[in-house]
Amino acid sequence: MNAVGRETAAGSSWLLFDLVGGGVAVTAPDGTLEYCNDALLRLLARDAAALLGSSIFDLLDGGANHELERLHRIALATDKELRARVRGSDSRFVASAVMRRLDAHDGLRVIWSFVDARCNEPAPELALWGTEIGLWDWDVVNDRLTWINDWCEHSQLAAFSGYGHEQLWSSRIHPEDLPAYREAVTRHLEGVAPPYDVEYRLRNRDDAWVWIQERGRVIERDSSGRALRTVGLCLDVDERHKSARALERSESRFAHAVWGASVGFWDHDLATDTVHWWNDWCAGVDLDPCDGANHSQRWDVNVHPDDLRNFDGRFQAVLEGRSDIYESEYRMRSRSGNWRWIMSRGRATACDASGHTVRLAGVTIDIDGRKRMELALRDSEARLEAAIWGADLGLWDWKLEDGSLLWLSNWPTRFGIDSALRTVRRDAWIDRVHPLDRQKYAAEDHALIHDGSDCAESDYRILSSSGDWRWVNVRTRVIERNSAGRALRIVGACIDIDSRRRAEQTLRTQAKILETMSEGVVLVTLDGRIEFTNPALDRLFGRRSQELIGISVLELFNSRQAQAPAAVLEGLLQHRGRGGKRDMLFRRRDGSQFAGEVLSAEVELSGEKKMLIVVQDVSERKQLESEIIEIANRERRRLGADLHDGLGQELTGISLMLRSLAKRAGFAAFGASLELDEIIALVNHAIQSARKMALGISPVTLERGGLLPALQTLIGWSRASYHIEVGLRLSIRSPLHIGESAAAHLYLIVQEAINNAVKHGRARSIAVTLRSNRALVSLSITDDGVGIVESAARGAGMGLKLMEYRSAVIGGVMKIKRLPNGGTRIRSVCPQHAAHR
């Protein structure tokens, strides 16, 4: 019996604390030490007999003892677990102490747990009082069980403490596992078998099956050998079973668990190089045992070449006596030809006079599953690191106890924090938050720390190392709280979203501009489908945006538009980005139409080309233009009539009077007659000039037959004036029903086209073609000249622009095309019944 208290009646129940790796002590209400396990004796380097009966308050020096007394009083006054860090002045051991009150059979007790201050391993209380180990004490005779800790509570199991435990506990065991459980317990209680170790499935509080491992042994029997008292522990091995099933899918699941790893035992006589295996472990893992003589040479042949050097180096150190312990992990070729990870661990059991090892004893363990999981974990960590790097994430861990913030990557270097200083003060980071964002930031922190919020996400600005404010997105989560609910540890991730936020701001600004524009804006695909409209366009057409999205933009145009729908879209595509504007007719939802000025441009969004169209209602302007042009036309007709009927008639009368006078004067004086003839010729020339002026001012009038006679007159005049071939072709399928004003515009388009063909195109022949049907009137002028240059329509000249304007005024469109073999074709198409709009 090594541990203090094992010989006492009360101490017998503390034997189960030997199962815990850390130092454990049990004290009476006055602080007297009743039990210390071996781990604590080694930690304190104290004699067992000297500690038994002494006060625990004498273990530490200085003010630490007073702290132990204070904690002891608190532990006795509460039934909750108490944790605190206590350190002696010499700081030789003691890192922390954990107390828990225990209501033992013979009185109140306090359990203490200690760890070495120089050790960075987790405190043993995490194993003792956490969710890993459940400790129990069972009065077999009275079937009364006492749990030493609250393991069942952590594991979501019904504790069934007190009387009648066995029946209640067994009722929750899986029917398939119950016989084995009862046999193991019964055989041990009857003294037939040593301490039992059994695994079984147990139904938890959620009615789910979880795997439990239970170990127990009898610590008290009566004179007849009947078991009176048993202590033991329970482990939650459910995750192990799940992992084993997922990894192996075979009988080796127990081999990869904590308590059941298959082990091969061997003894190696180095003098004869003979190995003896104590079991058939090699057969179970498909390896050649290479037992008997000449073991090393046969074994080394199957070691993976990449592992052989390390394997031989460690083995050689043991052979030469430079190390007593041999341990190595390496891959072995199995009999089936696969590589399998194993671990060999041995200890020198005999040496010769020179100190060289002559005999080794050890074990070999199949670690293939664990090693592959380690390698997979490394790969996963490498991928995670690459993902963090690729995603540009800043991960951090904030411990509120000391205010330290540990960065898990060098992400904060851009904000002026040295990447080598992974741990910084939280305050230093908060100081970099924009003053306008700090209040929101502080409110989120307060909610996480004090108000029970588990997570938060927000955007705020941070001062970068270059002195600029950059937007970052921060996501935080609380992963640890104290008993009062206050956060102790918070983790989080930062993402630089500065570009996104600035882009969003730009988009919001652009959206605001679009919303406040008086012009209608529509975004369409190249095949004419509407993808976006602004409010002004919705109001312009009397529709909602949802109604317009997805329909063809051609549905917005007047059904009586001079062009076919495909031609309208083609015209928009041809004019996009040229900076020119076009006048077109549109139709509202109620059927009314309006004139709109259209500007189109090609844009590229997300790698896809689209067309942006801006529409402005110019109905009022068009109405004003119509009135002005109509007034001008009336004045032209009046002037033409005045010239033709007024001045022309008067000159004609003068000419007739002069001819009469010339006849009479001819008899009187020959010389006077000649002079009168000259005067008559001048008057007749004045008459012709007056008529030409009248025709130029008002070329088309309904009184003179309308457009067709006017064109015939223009063709004849052009043929006589320019001395070239000018012809008129007619294809009148339906009578012309265009107004006088529209006819005048078509006439002037033909006149300008003929003048351009002669002046700039050097044409030798010109063909004018007039076609009509019930809906449209088409007028084209084709010449055989040198052809119009591409930039002519956008040049400084006014001729082509006036022709396009005149065509648009009467609701039509005009296309100018350079012919492949030379020459130019100008075509204007307008609707029947066209008048000025």
Please give a structural write-up:
- With 837 residues, this protein is of the alpha+beta class.
- It has 23 helices and 32 strands.
- A 6-stranded antiparallel β-sheet has the order 8-7-6-11-10-9, sandwiched between helices. A 6-stranded antiparallel β-sheet has the order 19-18-17-22-21-20. It has a 5-stranded antiparallel β-sheet with strand order 2-1-5-4-3.
- Helix 19 runs antiparallel to helix 20 and helix 21 packs parallel to helix 22.
- The protein is elongated, with a radius of gyration of 53 Å.
- Mean pLDDT is 78; it is low at 6-12, 120-131 and 250-261.
Number of helices: 23
User: Rg from C-alpha positions?
Assistant: 53 Å
Instruction: Give the neighbour order of strands across the main sheet.
Output: 8-7-6-11-10-9
Count every beta strand, where a strand is a DSSP E run of 2 or more residues: 32
- Biggest sheet overview: 6 strands, antiparallel
State the helicity in percent bands: 25-40%
Shape annotation = elongated
Mean pLDDT across all amino acids: 78
Structural category is alpha+beta
Q: In what range is the share of β-strand residues?
A: 25-35%
* Spans of at least 5 consecutive residues with low confidence: 6-12, 120-131, 250-261
Distance between the termini: 116 Å
